[in-house]
Structure formats: C-alpha cells, structure tokens
Specification:
- By secondary structure, the protein is of the alpha+beta class.
- The chain has one domain: Serine Threonine Protein Phosphatase 5, Tetratricopeptide repeat (Alpha Horseshoe).
- It is built from 18 helices and eleven strands.
- The strands form four sheets. It has a four-stranded mixed beta sheet with strand order 5-2-10-11. A three-stranded mixed beta sheet has the order 1-4-8, with no helix packed on it. It has a two-stranded antiparallel sheet with strand order 3-9.
- The longest helix has 26 residues.
- The radius of gyration is 22 Å and the shape is globular.
Amino acid sequence: MLGLLISGILLTSCKKDFLEVIPKGSLIATTAADYDLLLSFNGFYFNSAVDGSYMLPLALGDEVAAEGSLFGNTNIHMQRAFRWEPVIYEPTEEPYYIGTQLSLLYTCNKVIEEVMNGAGDELQKRQLLAEAKAGRAFLYFHLINLFGKPYNAATAATDPGFPLITRADVTGNHYTRASVQAIYDLVVSDLQAAIPDLPLTGKPRVRILKSGAEGLLGKVYLFMGKPAAALPFLNAAFTDMAAQPTPPRLYDYNVELAPGGSFLPVSPTAGPVNPGNKYDDLTESLMAKTFYSGTGRSNINVFYGNSALVLTPEAAALFTATDKRLQLYSANKPDGSPNPGGRIRKYAVTYTKFGLQLPELYLLSAECKARTNDLAGAKADVEYLRNRRMPNADALVPTAIAGDQASLIRFIIDERIREFAAEGYRWFDMRRLSTDPLFSALVYKHTIYADAGNEVITLTPERLVLRLPPYYLDKNPEMRDNP
C-alpha cells in the first residue's frame, strides 16, 4: 500500500506506522498561501535519512573503492550496496528514503489536484501548480533511475518501472509497476507543462524556478539518448538563470583556495570551507537539493557516510597534479592516520548537492554538443568549468581529443568523475552509459582493500537496477520484483 506512506513525514520529521492513514480533514489547505507552505517543506530540499538510504548511490559508483579497515564498521545497507548485492533491505525494513519520496509525491499530487480551486491570486496558483508538477517530475526521475532499467527506446515500453501515482489518494490502493516509458512520459509532460508558468525569480533556489526545470528537462532528454532535444532546454536554463538578482555562478577554485580565498582556512579533519561543507551554500545551485553524506569529520560519521570510501587508482589518475579539486581529498583516514598506498578519500564534502548544479549544467551542455557534433561548443563548455578548477594553462582540452567526437565525449564523462566523484553521480552515469555503444563494453568493478588480501566484486548487468525492498512487495503482491 504505497499510498499509505504519506503519513507522518509530510508535516513533521516523525515517522509513523505504514498502515496509518491521514484522517480526513487533518491536512487541509484552502488558500494559495497554504499550498505554498506545503511546497516549502524542507524535505523537498534537504535529506538526512536515518537509515543511510539516501547515500546508497555513493557506494554504487565504480569510481570508489573501500578501505577494509573501515568498511566493516559502515552501515549494512552501504556494505550491501557496495557489493552490488541483490538484497539490500531485510523483509521487515521500510527504507526511509522511499517513504520520504512518496510523502513528497503525495504533497505534489495534492497541490496539483487542489490549488487551482483554492483562494488567492491566479498567477500565484498557476506558479504553484507548475512547481508541484516539476517537483513530481524530479521525484519520479530519481526513482526510475534507481528501480527501473536504464532508458532504452526499444524496450522502455515493456521494461517494468515504478508505480505511477498521480492522485493524492490514501484509500489503501494496491499498486503495480508502470513501464519505464510511462514514467519518463510523465516526467517529460510534467516539466513541459510546468516550465511556461514557473517564475524566473522571486523565490530561493531551494524552490523550483524556471531555469531549474529547464535544466532538468534537458538532463532527462539526455538520459533518454536525445541530446538534440536536450540542448534547447539547457540553453534556456543558462539564459533564464541570468534573470535572478544573484544568479548561480561557478566558484573559481584558483581564487577561493589562494591566500585570502573564501574556502580558507583548511581544516585538517574537514578540509576547505567549500559548498560541500556548508549545506546552505547555494552559489552553484540552479535547483538546490542536498543530502547529508557524512564524509567523516570524525569517526562517528563512518557508520553512515562515505568515510570508508576512497577513489580507485583509475579515478585518481584522471586528475592532473594542478587540479584544485584534489584539495577536497585527504590521504588520511578520519582518525588522522594515513590511508595505505596513498589512497585518497573525499573528506571535504559533508553535504552533497544532487538537484541541479551549475557545474553539471555545463557538462550536460558540453556532452549534448559533442554528441550532436558541435565539438567547438563542447570544448568551450567543458573548458569554462575547468578554467575555474585549475590554472588556465592546464584546463585546455588536448587538441587530439577536442577534434575527435568519441574522444571528446569520453573526456566529458571523465570530467563528470573529476567534478562529482564520491557523490553518487557516477552510479546514474553508469546506468545510462550501459546502453551507449561508446561505453557499453565497460566492466564495472569494486575493490575492498584489506591486509589479508583485496576482494574484487564485478557488477552484473541485472544489478544496474536495484530490487524493490521486500517490505513494499509484501504490501503490494501485484508488483513483481527486478531480477
């Protein structure tokens, strides 16, 4: 009974029983101001899951390995995810992450159904309707990229996706899984309907503005293998974000990590004072959504965070020595002792931004341009970001790469690792690239480093999709699980 998960989390942080239904009349909104308050709920933009479930993508990407001396102390869900095991949750466990997403989905559906009949300014109500649709699109885009197969136009109509819930209904319905295509159709249609009525400015970027929805739709189209369709929306996002009184901007690490820079001082345990260590720093955010990733200010954070994770040798080799992003990494464990073999962990990102960040917008634009054979435009986009992450002389894309489409696409994908390593982005890229002939032959591995011998785990194709937790399958017997 997935619809019953909306109780409790919606208006408070307290969790209640799976079978509890919100009593009729207990959640009443009658004015535009009421619906605006519903969409202001902090669960839409900040998450700190009590069971670590928001952090699972951190452990799923192949750019990270694990330190055996710390790995055994991490949350069991993180361990199972890192091993790409088929079963992550026990039969009686209700993952907090899915529960919160369904609660937020209920709120979006409620606003969509009711706001235009509420009292208040018509323009404000249309904007709230648009924001709820864009919010629903974001939720479904994230869920389908965990529990549905990677989008493949040839099979999406029959590939099982996620239950399609478009009503604020808590009457105890049982749900089946809609197809991957049906979920993507909803995401695209919601964003297309929302964009014309979303405001350019006037709200903080923890709310969804027009530029954020445009960038998200561009990302969705790219994940569907449609770079030509994505580009106009990515371009519109760049244009429309400029209308904000203080538009998103890229930090220049060359400046901020130099004497007098805003990222200083550098803490020996937490690293530079960069946006990853400040949950409320939205400087680079178009659509600000954040989760606590607990990267290890002390040993206490090892349990749920990614302090046990280090970059693989292959990922570390992607960085040049002058890349300022390396200053977000430490060669020490959380207790200050050195990691064996000089392995490095991302200790300076305690709060991971996973909505839509300006660095990603540049890389999405670069990738779409490369895939549509605008190599000069792609080169300019990726270099614009790199110029703010390292000295300009080192930021140039090598000529041999810049002039070859396939090589440039690979370079941009590598740049995504350099920019977002150990933050969960790589898992979603692994999924979508599995259907791309340029990358489909890749074999993904995880290594657990230990004194007694390293353990290597190889990802099997079926584990590019997470299984549905048994808790939900038990409540919804009509749903079939992933292999």
